[in-house]
Amino acid sequence: MKKKIGLIPSPDLPAKIINQIADQLKISFEKQISSQIDWDIEVKVGIFVGAAEYVNETMKKVIELKETYGWDYAISITDLPSFSERKAVIADVSTTNHVGIISLPSFGAFPLKKRISKAITLITELLYKHNEATVEKEVMTQINRRFSLSKVMQVDPEEDAETDIRFVLNSKIIGWLRILSGMVFANRPWRAIGTFKKMLTLAFATGIYISIFSTPWQLSVSYTPSRFISLMMLSMIGMVIWIIFAHHLWEKPTSKSQSQYRRLYNVTTVITLFVITLINYFLLFILFLLSISLFVPEGIFDAVTNEGADESIEDYLRLAWLTASLSLLVGAVGATVEKEEKIREVTYSYRQKNRYYEIEKQDESDEDAETSYDGVQQTHKEQDES
Questions:
Q1: Radius of gyration of the chain (CA)
Q2: Backbone angles phi, psi at 86, to 5 degrees
Q3: Lowest mean pLDDT among 20-29, 213-222, 321-330
Q4: What is the DSSP letter of 76?
């Protein structure tokens, strides 16, 4: 017997993970579900845009793709968060239509390939054996082994016609932390080094210019650690705020977006930009430390600051630290001249970015009723199915 499985990952990180584990999934299906089945796995990157608030619409599109390609089962792996009664949703399953949706952010900042593979295997097992009385309990037990910090509950969706099983994290706090860290990870802020070239160039040039004057030298030897930290945090926070408002990255309230998702996206943007800024700050610090170490003559700190002592590595570190903080504030101007689309690419994952544009278009043309946001919002009653 042959079974066709369609995996529909979102572009970027989900697609990358699925492509890496696709070959191993067949082996996992044979071990976990049935070795008598010839499992045929097909990966189709999902280009449709769905809003996190409307799980029914995404489920319908997965069903359409399943029917279009003639799959027996279809599972979407999305990088959008999903909540139900303020609890993080791990997966939605429709045993009637033989489809499922896995929310990748609920796996946290380190969605190990083995965990994703196991989750897909368990959902497939649930779809294949859904008529067996004990399968749901067995799947729940195995899922909980992989979410040891927070119990996973199976709840009964009330108004979702397309979903009959939903898995949620019982702890709201842990669930929010997992999703928040998972969304930041999905943005992959470490890729932004090449995006902020103009900012780094302007900041480095400014720092070199600043460092030739005596005042920063004198300040560097007199500042306490608390002052250095305060100045560093001020420069980083200023950089983040400047980028957000210069490139309109703050998502505003709309009639089509829920406040909890809007707040989550905005917090994700702030944390992502803060991580990007921290990486760039560290690069600037290293560059300034190397430059100062190479080009500052011996004894110069003694001559300029009248400290009465030879220069030391601490002097170099202090001056590099102060220069990095001051130059970062000026470097924010360099981030402003970067193309807005490039900034969005590193602060929004693919589907977040598309969701932003869909909301923007909806605000500009309220008369266009047919958008990706039509649908019934997801709700559920807090009922433990076990």
A1: 26
A2: 65, 15
A3: 213-222
A4: E
